[in-house]
Specification:
CATH superfamily of the largest domain: ACT domain
Number of domains: 2
Number of strands: 9
Strand content: 35-45%
Shape: flat
Helix content: 10-25%
CATH class of the largest domain: Alpha Beta
Length: about 220
């Protein structure tokens, strides 16, 4: 289930936390009957919700969003949060039972309506572990130039390599003040690819762009 929620003001925002959404006519909707599964019902099984939120950077944003998750019975499994210019962005993977996630969806919708926060919600599943992939890390440092991330991602995609995580930052060199750019990636390399050949091709590619690069297995 996917839903976009944009920041809009509303005079009907409820002050009561984590209550079921009301149906037309002011009555409270009961959740639909769910099929019985042996051992546990789907209501009680752990489910997953991906959340992205962005809004003007201000004190208390993280607390507001994470408090809703906690109050409604959700658990934050993974998260990434960062200031982007004057905005603050949050990515979270939350798990909980069916009722907890339904309450979180309802309360985050109310938060978006009463604040400048833009929220996107999507039900998801845990990512399956793949035995045909090996995790590697990539570290790049170079003078800042256009197209570094596009070039790296193109090189990897052309060889069937998945990008799992990317982090970048621009900064000034300590002594010279020269504009620098750093990239950290976690990638998944197919086991069928010869690592020695991949490393050689990767280093040649980085040399062609004057990138200082390290490619090594992720330490467990």
């Amino acid at each position: 289930m996917s839903r976009d929620v944009t920041g809009r003001t509303s005079s009907h925002a409820s002050t009561e936390r984590c209550r079921p959404a009301a149906a037309a006519g002011g009555k409270v909707r009961n959740p639909p009957a769910l099929p019985y599964t042996a051992g546990a019902t789907s209501v009680n099984m752990k489910q997953h919700l991906a959340i992205s939120a962005i809004g003007a950077d201000r004190t208390g944003m993280v607390h507001e969003l994470t408090r809703i998750i906690s109050d409604c019975g959700g658990n934050i499994a993974e998260s990434r949060m960062v200031a982007l210019g004057s905005e603050f962005a949050m990515l979270l993977l939350v798990n909980g039972n069916w009722h907890a996630l339904a309450r979180i969806e309802s309360e985050l919708a109310r938060l978006a309506e009463t604040s400048s926060l833009s929220v996107h919600l999507k039900r998801t599943e845990p990512k399956a572990t793949r035995s045909d992939m090996l995790p590697y890390s990539v570290d790049i440092v170079s003078l800042d130039q256009t197209g570094i991330v596009a070039g790296l991602s193109g090189f990897l995609a052309s060889r069937g390599i998945d990008v799992g995580e990317v982090s970048t930052r621009a900064y000034a060199a300590a002594h010279t003040g020269a504009p620098m750019f750093a990239v950290q990636m976690v990638i998944q390399v197919p086991t069928k690819l010869p690592i020695a050949q991949l490393r050689e091709e990767f280093m040649e590619f980085c040399d062609s762009l004057n990138l200082d690069a390290i490619l090594e297995p992720v330490k467990s």
